[in-house]
């Protein structure tokens, strides 16, 4: 962005004299502003995504703790070992443990809440293992998950827009360098005004020197060599 700002200054200062009509200074500055705006929006959404992630993690942790206690309540109601009576509470596939994945945990919470709503006598009020407590935690994580997905989608789209704006600016910057290369000499100080280093001319000078160097002189043969050749 700093280099782009320098190039904009160079266009404003020398662009008209160098006839760089392909890149008008106001249009180039609009391209810089567009990238700055898209970068700001992308940064804002990344911050929101981080906040949504923390909210999701906190809600998931609270729900997991509640399911662990609810599992003990179901165990008191339906026995220590898994049986088909556990199915009513949402514990399926001969498993009485709390799922490790978020999706299955949310689904289990929904079923346990439904079980406690139909069987309030199995709840443990002093441990907050009731249908009311579980429904609140369930609603919290569902809301957090929905917001997080929405923000992640918006953040991905903002990155695409930001990257497109950056590519557009980079193309224009490369175009300016190409025009300067064809318009001004390597020793021209205006390179510095555009925020660029002056091109190196050492290689070009060496090539030029070798091209203009005089041809080597053929050595004169010694008399002994000439006599040997005749013999």
- Intertermini distance: 80 Å
What order do the helices and strands follow? HHHHHHH
Radius of gyration, rounded?
A: 38 Å
Low-pLDDT regions:
203-218, 223-231
What global shape is seen?
rod-shaped
**What is the count of β-strands?**
0
Query: Into which percentage range does the β-strand content fall?
Result: under 5%
Fraction of helical residues: 55-70%
Largest sheet: none
**Main structural class:** mainly alpha
Number of helices: 7
Q: Please, what is the average pLDDT? A: 84
Description:
The chain has helices at 2-14, 25-78, 102-118, 131-183, 190-193, 202-212, 223-230. It has 231 residues and is mostly helical. It is rod-shaped, with a radius of gyration of 38 Å.
Briefly summarize what is shown.
Helices cover 69% and strands 0% of the residues. It has 231 residues and is mainly α. Mean pLDDT is 84; it is low at 203-218 and 223-231.
Question: What labels describe this entry?
Answer:
231 residues, 69% helix, rod-shaped, 7 helices
Blueprint (SSEs and pairs):
Layout lengths: L1 H13 L10 H54 L23 H17 L12 H53 L6 H4 L8 H11 L10 H8 L1
Helix pairs in contact: 1-2, 2-3, 2-4, 3-4
